[in-house]
Amino acid sequence: MIKEKFTKQVQEMLNVFELMESEVDETSKKHEILQNKIDHLLEATLANEVRNCVVHSVEQIENEKLREEIEKISNDSKDFQATLLK
Question: Where is 79: in which H helix or E strand?
Answer without folding.
Answer: helix 2-85
